[in-house]
Amino acid sequence: MTGFSRFVFVGAGFALLLAARSAFAQGADQSQNRLDLLRTPVNPTYSQGVAPSGEDQGYAASSPNDEDLGQQAILKRREQYKPFTILVGAPFYYTSNVALTRSGEQDDVIFAPVLNVIYQPRFTKTFYGEFALQHQVFLYDRFDEFNFNSFDAIAGLVYYLPQAHNLTLRARYDYNRLTDTNHYDEFFVDHSIFLSAELPFRFGRAQQLSVGLDTNLTFYAHPDGPQRNDFEAYVGYSVNLSRSFSIDTVGRLAVRDYYVGDRTDVSEILALSASYRFRDWLTASFISTFAWNQSNQDVFDYSVANVGGALSLSVKF
Hints:
Elements: H1 3-38, H2 66-69, E1 84-89, E2 92-95, E3 108-111, E4 114-119, E5 122-124, E6 127-140, E7 148-161, E8 167-179, E9 186-203, E10 207-222, E11 228-240, E12 245-258, E13 264-279, E14 282-295, E15 302-316
Antiparallel strand pairs: 1-4, 1-15, 2-3, 2-15, 3-6, 4-6, 5-6, 6-7, 7-8, 8-9, 9-10, 10-11, 11-12, 12-13, 13-14, 14-15
């Protein structure tokens, strides 16, 4: 092989390597974005007898009618705190933009079964630990080349401040690993620190408005192309229409600052859900998310609608 031929051969090989690396990173970034929209939340839920503010004194919750009736001290049954939760869910979605692309959108159906194991030790009435393992599989009906697994290992703390309008502060470490579904080959791994602050405003017993800030700081990722820091602000509203039926809506504005490529995205996300609890351990839900992504690199602009449902079973002990 001549020197010129060798130069051409090496150059072509290097170009192919760069193209493969770019496609690899783009696939990881797309899976990350899909996770942001459809991932089952791993935030723990607490026992019914324990309010987030730590108000587990065994008395009935306050109501606007208390002054009319005089000071009430109605005792209620105090439930023993249960720190372990096992959650099995079977969400499914119709998505309008399977590849999250700017043009040439294709629709599909996604099945995303999930297993969550959560341990929530209570250190004080307002200070808890959060430790969780989650495995979720994303299976596409027509475009199965997009199938992937997501595994999370989480360790963190949550602190409630009743004296500050029940402000909730949360900090945790999250290890996330994405693999294909055929051989479980790893194509992305991410180590991040998640920080959040949420301020709830309750209206009677049935309604709550929440405002909050989330920050997700990635300190190591491989490959590094999809590595980013996320900064989010959100407003959420929830209402219990009965003891079993509730409706929730959340609007989010997220800024995603990428480490590589001088790229910054701004995402607007609206999530709507309605849930009916048949038993304490069995819930059926209607779930939907709508997202609009704008980037300083036009190729990453997209919009998507995801509409579906879920059946979930949970056990606390």
